[in-house]
Design goal:
- The strands form three sheets. This protein has a two-stranded antiparallel sheet.
- The radius of gyration is 21 Å and the shape is globular.
- 31% of the residues lie in helices and 10% in strands.
- A hairpin with a 5-residue loop joins strand 5 and strand 6.
- The chain is α+β, with helices and mostly antiparallel strands.
């Protein structure tokens, strides 16, 4: 819920009205397709399929924050639930500490970058509306980093969602572009996955790097696996297409307008959006949209 709250705050726009599905009782349980659940089954762990005709999700949303006295509590119900559930008795206790306002989060990478004084991971997660844009992105980034350490499988990105735009000269001597799997940082930079150095050199002969260079698109660090992991975290939290788009633009905006690039290198537009496209974020390779973001005009005023 905390992740969804931050995403919803980052998302600028009005929610569409709910339209009850007419064929709920006709729907069949979803087929098992997510590699995460397939992996759990291969390990002999229990995975349950949700039956839409017999399932309902009820969430109690309590008022909070500075203007709590002006609001009221809500009960939100979803009558159109599908998917899978994999209970993990170790996950909840591991993540519970992330909401502890007395916990020390100082070792998380972006914590010094909060704009609002006194902000840290737990306080922003509990009341995102009270914080600045920069604070929301810092929180989502460090939340992803913390989850990666505590429960790595939750933000592990499968190969099918690690696709990027590549360049090659075909048999006719013509330039050709295609999307294919990114095999890791070794595909595009002289830095191995286990190195912690903040600076590195791109491999100019890499097909991904060449694609951007030929088209004149600025790149700095290569395809953004940080973006991919944050998108995966949002996916686990049930993000909507609008929230995926808002998150992608938020990450890009933060890195290129707010982040101190004297600390480490960052990802530019092509590197962020080419990866975010794996989650359906509108993106035309090697072109800047006329408006930001292009897919939803309701997002424009606050981003």
């Amino acid at each position: 819920m905390a992740i969804v709250a931050v995403l919803a705050t980052l998302l600028a726009g009005c929610a569409s009205q709910f339209t009850p599905p007419s064929d709920r009782h006709k729907r069949k349980p979803a087929e098992l397709s997510d590699t995460y659940y397939q992996g759990l089954l291969a390990q002999g762990k229990p995975v349950f399929r949700v039956d839409p005709a017999r399932s309902i999700v009820v969430i109690e949303v309590r008022r909070g924050g500075s203007f709590a006295h002006l609001g009221h509590d809500h009960v939100v119900a979803s009558h159109d639930v599908a998917g899978h559930i994999a209970p993990d008795p170790t996950t909840a206790p591991a993540l519970k500490g992330l909401l502890d306002e007395k916990a020390d989060f100082s070792k998380l990478e972006y914590q010094p970058l909060y704009r609002k004084r006194g902000a840290h991971l737990a306080t922003v997660l509990k009341d995102p509306d009270a914080y600045h844009f920069e604070d929301l992105v810092v929180t989502l980034h460090d939340l992803m980093s913390a989850i990666k350490k505590l429960v790595p499988g939750l933000v592990e990105v499968p190969a099918a969602q690690c696709m990027g735009t590549y360049f090659r000269i075909n048999e006719r001597g013509e330039a050709e572009y295609s999307r294919r799997q990114i095999g890791g940082t070794k595909d595009f930079r002289y830095k191995t996955d286990n190195q912690q150095d903040a600076h590195f050199t791109l491999i100019e002969s890499s097909d991904f790097v060449m694609a951007a260079r030929v088209q004149g698109m600025p790149i700095w660090a290569g395809p953004s696996f940080t973006t991919a992991r944050m998108m995966k975290m949002a996916e686990r939290a049930g993000a909507t297409p609008e929230e995926f788009e808002a998150l992608a633009w938020g990450i890009f905006g933060f890195w290129n307008q707010c982040y101190p690039t004297t600390s480490t290198w960052v990802h530019r537009f092509h590197e962020v959006m080419d990866m975010a496209a794996n989650w359906g974020v509108p993106f035309e390779p090697f072109a800047y949209p006329r408006s930001a973001p292009p897919g939803h005009r309701s997002l424009q005023p606050k981003l």
